[in-house]
Design brief:
Elements (H helix, E strand, L loop, with lengths): L6 H12 L4 E2 L6 E2 L2 H10 L6 E2 L6 E2 L2 H12 L4 E2 L6 E2 L2 H20 L2
Length: about 110
């Protein structure tokens, strides 16, 4: 297995594999596994959002995020899990999903 010099580093590693997200945004409720990810997200609340979805009105700071969002309306799910075949609209959602399989495999290896 992997070795860690600090307990906090090990704790972050475990949260990653278990998909735990203890850091929650007070403005929108979205949760994150790392405090730094929450801080980056919270900065986005103050950004200008000039790219609005013509279908639902949700606005984005980046044109690329609007393009990703449009997939939800179109039903596009180009990212498929190699383990179970479930499909997702964003690669980040697939990565989050794949943690379930990592947890199952790690738990089985540890005798959980």
């Amino acid at each position: 297995g992997k070795r860690f010099g600090h307990g906090a580093t090990l704790a972050k590693h475990r949260r990653l594999h278990l998909g735990l997200q203890p850091h929650r945004c007070g403005e929108c409720g979205r949760a994150f596994g790392l405090r730094s990810a929450l801080a980056r997200h919270q900065r986005a609340h103050g950004e200008e959002r000039p790219f609005a979805c013509g279908e639902c009105g949700q606005a984005f700071a980046l044109r690329s995020n609007l393009a990703l969002h449009r997939r939800t309306h179109a039903g596009e799910r180009p990212y498929r899990c190699g383990e179970c075949g479930k499909a997702f609209g964003m690669s980040s959602t697939l990565v989050t999903h794949e943690r379930v399989h990592l947890e199952e495999a790690h738990g089985a290896a540890q005798g959980w």
